[in-house]
Write a structure and sequence with these properties.
Chain lengths: 14, 246
């Protein structure tokens, strides 16, 4: 449902 | 509490301020330096002649860029990535737009009621084509009242961290964990204000309902627009914007 947000959150902690 | 000692509170202040500095999108000095750079009359009327959908699309893109920086801010906040992903999403979905609205006061010049948008400063009239005069007026008024507080960059950092980490957002799975983080951030904010003799700021911050109301006005306007131009939203609006708002 929140595909983009998931991706942004998983995309490293930087 | 996860941040009990003074040293830990001070570390948290440092973490929040650094996270903010790294993700603030435009440096304050740059925004101040650009203040004399105003849209000409011709440029303003060219914005006003744009179609409603083109202006909406433009604003949706600018807003999404700002929100991406808020997501990065959240990710760098100590403790945020330790929350479960459901709660990270709940907090960002509810708070990202509110943080953007608070951040906007840095891009607002109260001397001439203009805001920095796409490279220059312009007033409310720049956004006439959107057909949301009341919403734009409310957003400008909000920036005006917030800019009167003359918040420092560190104060904006700590304030926006607390706008985001709000344990009262509906749908949180680990409310206790968010409460603890919120509590630590409140301690950090208060500690910083005490240290800089700025405790008076707390009573002057806008009530939470004011930000909530601006966000729901935005959602209402989007609903009307989406009803009239469903294909524009579907085809041309940024996916993140749609995910958050539509």
């Amino acid at each position: 449902k929140h595909r983009i947000l998931h991706k942004l959150l998983q995309n490293g902690n930087s | 509490a996860p941040y009990a000692s003074l040293t830990e509170i001070e570390h948290l202040v440092q973490n929040v301020c650094k996270s903010y500095r790294e993700t603030c999108q435009l440096r304050l000095e740059e925004l101040l330096r650009q203040r004399a750079n105003l849209f000409s009359r011709e440029e303003v009327s060219s914005y006003q002649r744009k179609s409603e959908w083109e202006m909406w699309e433009r604003c949706a893109h600018r807003l999404t860029e700002a929100i991406q920086h808020v997501v990065e801010f959240a990710k760098r906040l100590s403790g945020f990535m330790e929350l479960c992903q459901n709660d990270q999403i709940i907090l960002l979905k509810a708070g990202a737009m509110e943080v953007v609205l608070v951040r906007m006061c840095r891009a607002y010049n109260a001397d001439n009621h203009t805001v920095f948008f796409e490279g220059k400063y312009g007033g409310v009239e720049l956004f006439r084509a959107l057909g949301c005069g009341e919403l734009i007026g409310s957003i400008f008024d909000f920036s005006h009242s917030l800019s009167a507080l003359r918040l420092s960059e560190d104060e904006i950092a700590l304030y926006t961290a607390l706008v985001l980490i709000n344990a009262n957002r509906p749908g949180l799975q680990e409310k206790r964990k968010v409460e603890q983080l919120q509590c630590s951030l409140e301690l950090a904010f208060h500690h910083h204000l005490c240290k800089t003799h700025r405790q008076g700021v707390l009573a002057q911050l806008p009530p939470k309902g004011r930000l909530r109301s601006l966000c729901s006005q935005h959602l209402e306007k989007l609903q009307v627009f989406q009803h009239l131009h469903p294909i524009v939203v579907q085809a041309a609006f940024p996916p993140l914007y749609k995910e958050l708002f539509s």
